[in-house]
Amino acid sequence: MQPDSMDNVRKDFAWAVEIVRKRFADGLEELCDSEFLDQRYQRFKDRDDPIYAELLAAMQDEALAKTFVSYWTIAHTLATMSRFWLDEAIADLIIHQARHFGRPATEVYSQSMLGHGYLERRVTIAQMGEEERENLSRRLTWRPLVQRSSLDQIDLIVGRRERERAARTAQPKTHPSPSPRFSTPEARREDFEDLAAAAGSLKGPPADPIAIQCNLLVIEPDRLNGKPHAWAFRFVNPKVMGRHADRKQERANLLRLYAYLVQEKILRDPKGIQVAVAEVVPRYSEFDPSIGHPDFFSPVTYWKSHDLWGNIGVPFEVVTAAIHDVAEEFRGKLISGLRGLLPKDEAPLQQGLFDDEEEI
User: Please, what is the Cα angle at 13 between 7 and 17, to 5 degrees?
Assistant: First the structure.
């Protein structure tokens, strides 16, 4: 992002940049904490990996081994947790809009809030306290009870679409497709048919618990005007969606999510509920026309990043600006957190890392 563009984002969306910055700053503070790193290093040794543990132990330099493991721990955990921080920040953005800017949202749930049973208790934004939001750092798998009749029907729906896709792929190509099947009216029609079939399969108990992935659920006041008033998103990485098995799994997950929301009657009209997988981070990706990528989806249920952030109500650039702000803090935390870990007899190495420490 160009400096002028970033300045404009900071000016127009200062509140949003601060929300994202705080989520990442708090996460990085915990990640670089020396006690956290000590615990992770001890856990690494306790696992006694036959390759890594033996390699590091044979060096007979525990300070160096601890430094190596700490760097690896920070990088590995950051790659995993950064998406969690972003999920929570997105929920915070919408909650802030509802409280301060009049956005017509009555309930907002992140994945962690769903895992802690917030939807089952129907905790509204008005009931939600800031302290309560800060205590959701422990991620729990969301396993709602979904009627068995619906789960069975969804398996059949996904299986049928997979067979239809295989039959299309096996047909000889007389001429190249002018556009990916993903964007055709036929794909949209099948999308709506599958959603209606999932909703229509609800026949009553018994119900089974099943893990459902949903990163963001936003519910507005219920209005019977034929428009969506609830949105449920599963955030995905386009690279993961490049694998057929993952697309199939995401399709089943999305239909289960929709069936559950209809089952729980979060809105009177199921047509007011829109579910989609969405790219949360903008990336360059093309759907391959030859295979109709992504299978099982159309623009009805697969959103590009700019569509998602348009629904959130702020540009993705607020995340970029927040990351720039927190980067300098992260640099300082890395240096202070790792200073005591570096080998004491490697003075040149230490000097090279900390020679500009006074600039922090």
Answer: 85
